[in-house]
Amino acid sequence: AQWTTVFITPETVTLTYDAQGGTGEPDDQTGDAASDVTVSSTVPTRDGYTFQGWNTQADGSGDDYAGGDTYTLPTSGTDTLYAQWQINTVTLTYDPQGGTGEPDDQTGDAASDVTVSTTEPTRDGYTFQGWNTQADGNGTSYSGGDTYTLPNSGTDTLYAQWQINTVTLT
Fold it and tell me: DSSP for 27-40?
């Protein structure tokens, strides 16, 4: 009997990353079929959202993976891990700038619209003139009932604008 050695080259397969609306996803990873790779620790970004990790299904119903986890490549073809995102909750605050009775803070999803409160603060000797994105009044002005677009992250503040009352002494 004669024997010969046959070398079989394993199939090269791929793991891709889909940022699902984000940017900066990791590069594809390739390796031998059914071999293990380490999930990339590169974190994509998306305005108004916080990255939650990777999942084998776009809707998040599959298996979860984080950077540094071990992932077993498919036996053929390509697998994809999908970025999972949580929308940021952000806040709009009102600064009465010396007045009292300002509206409560408003919270909502990042970049969503809220209605500016119609609650008006009061200040002895002054008349309330509305709200502004800058304390000195040089930003964008808003009145109660106007639409305000919340930030992508953190907190925005509207500042009360006051006009001093004019009085006459006779």
Answer: PPEEEETT-EEEPP
Residues with Cβ within 8 Å of residue 66, at least 6 apart in sequence: 39, 53, 54
* Cβ–Cβ < 8 Å for 162, 135: no
Among residues 120, 89, 90, 126, which one has the least CA distance to residue 103? 120
* pTM of the predicted model as reported, rounded to 2 decimal places: 0.80
The two tokens of residue 19 are: 């940022």
Tens of pLDDT, residue by residue over 112-121, are 999 999 999 9
Q: What 8-state DSSP symbol labels residue 135?
A: T
Whole-angstrom CA distances from 34 to 29, 68, 153 are 13, 18, 41
Q: Which two tokens stand for residue 131?
A: 């709200």
Instruction: For residue 15, give the amino acid letter.
Output: L
